[in-house]
Specification:
Elements (H helix, E strand, L loop, with lengths): L1 H15 L2 H15 L6 H5 L2 H11 L4 H8 L3 H21 L4 H22 L7 H28 L4 H11 L3 H9 L3 H15 L2 H12 L8 H14 L5 H23 L12 H24 L1
Length: about 300
């Protein structure tokens, strides 16, 4: 019975086609029906979203990537460095323990929960610390997903500007794509491309932390490499416009499905474990990142 209910919820999300609505439906399903840990939407987790991003890559050529990235790659590098190392410095003001500082700074600088999950085993983070960091990032992602499209409209950001803004200002890849999805297809293309470039910085971070902590337990975001491969396939193939439009529609189905699945994860998040200091620290980093991202987009 619960599977039929989840299908009806997901079908509603796909019909509406709204990213924020899809996440909210997932949260509502999780809240009212409390699926088990091995329930299908919780087992697949972010896999549908990752598939959607890779399929989206099949509609983006190298020329588009170069055009999109040309003005932003140096800024992305600077943004990642300042966010991570600046976060570690700011954490001293809050007298936050080193592990939480690294987890939250990694998530804020690179790719949210993916970075946190990759870094946690390397620095031997305790389960409680991991949950706190993930919960903080999750809350900011939900806020961004719901509010940023309205903020973008209020600020009269173009499709390219908005895609660039969310690629810098939003933590998780899922929320970046979901937020851009609410603005325009062009915003999604820009946001996905720049977010992949930002996510690649997870590799040197993992190498650095492995060296410092002398630990080889690391997980690389493999879907990023598949995204790059998909872009190369598009660049060296003669793909028709009709096929590209079809792939965009298929990509959106996977993206919406992935966002619904992410919403169903909320019952595993322990909001009671969230303490004041780490939350304010994470909020401070985000409040610094927002105007910084906006200025980069406007003046680059």
């Amino acid at each position: 019975m619960i599977y039929l209910i989840s299908i009806s919820f997901l079908a509603s999300a796909l019909v509406i086609g709204n990213a924020a609505f899809s996440v909210c439906l997932g949260v509502a399903f999780s809240f009212f029906y409390k699926p088990e840990l091995n329930f299908i939407t919780r087992k697949v987790s972010t896999i549908p979203l990752q598939i959607g991003i890779v399929i989206l890559g099949l509609t983006i050529g190298l020329s588009s990537v170069y055009e999109i990235s040309e003005n932003y790659l140096s800024w992305i590098t600077l943004f990642v460095f300042l966010s991570f190392f600046g976060g570690l410095l700011i954490s001293r003001i809050f007298n936050l323990n080193k592990t939480l500082s690294i987890l939250i700074s990694s998530g804020a600088a690179i790719c949210g929960a993916t970075a946190i999950a990759a870094v946690a085993p390397i620095i031997k983070a305790k389960p409680h610390e991991l949950i706190v960091a993930l919960t903080i990032i999750f809350l900011f992602n939900i806020i961004a997903l719901i509010s940023f499209p309205y903020i973008g409209s209020t600020l009269s950001l173009s499709n390219v500007e908005f895609g660039s803004f969310v690629a810098l200002a939003v933590h998780d890849t899922s929320s970046v794509i979901g937020t851009a999805l609410e603005y325009s297809p062009e915003s999604v293309e820009v946001a996905a491309t720049l977010k992949m470039a930002r996510t690649l910085w997870l590799i040197p971070l993992i190498i650095l932390l492995n060296f410092i902590y002398k630990n080889n337990e690391s997980k690389y975001p493999k879907f990023v490499f598949f995204f790059v491969l998909a872009v190369l396939i598009n660049s060296y193939s003669q793909m028709s416009i009709q096929l590209e439009l079809l792939l965009r529609d298929i990509s959106k189905i996977f993206l919406i499905t992935g966002l619904f699945c992410i919403g169903t994860q909320t019952s595993s998040i322990d909001f009671k474990s969230l303490s004041f200091k780490p939350f304010i620290f994470g909020l401070t980093l985000w409040l610094i990142a927002l105007p910084t991202a906006y200025l980069i987009v406007i003046y680059s």
